[in-house]
Here is the input.
Amino acid sequence: MGIAIQLSRLGTCPRKAVGAVLIRDGRCISWGYNGAPPGAPHCEENNHGWQLQPEYRQNLDDEEAADIEATMLSEHGCRNATHAEANALAFAAKQGISTDDALLFVTVAPCDTCSKLLIAAGIRRVYYEEEYRDPAGVELLRLAGVGAVKQEYHA
Here is the structure.
C-alpha cells in the first residue's frame, strides 16, 4: 500500500490523489495514478471537464455559468481524469502484461466502472485504504467473487 500512496502523489487531478499498484507473484507488474489522459487538458485547465462551451454560455453571465459548472462538478465528480486503477490496467495492456490473478493495492476503493474493468482483467483481490463515495464498486467486486479488503496502512 505504501507504493500506491507514493504513486498517488503523482496524480494530476487536485480533487483527489489516488494511486494503484498491480502485483502478481510478489512483483509489481503495473501501476497508475489519477489524471487526464496524455494530450488532454489537465483538470484545472477546463474545470475538470465541466467548463461550459461558448454556445451554452451565451445566455448566462459569468456567475451563472460558474454556478452550473460547480454544481456539475460537486454532483458528478471529475470528467477529465482517468482513475488510477484504469491507468494501471491500461499500462499493463499496452505493454502486453497479463493481469490475470493479480492483486491490486489502491488508495481509494474502486468505482463501479473501474470494478468492471478489474473483474474483466482477472484481478483476484483488491486492497484499498479509503472508501469511495459510492460503495457500488466494492459491492460489484464482491458479487463477482473478487476479494475487496479495506486495509489501513501504517508506515
Observations:
- The chain has a mean pLDDT of 92.
- The longest strand covers residues 27-33.
- The radius of gyration is 17 Å.
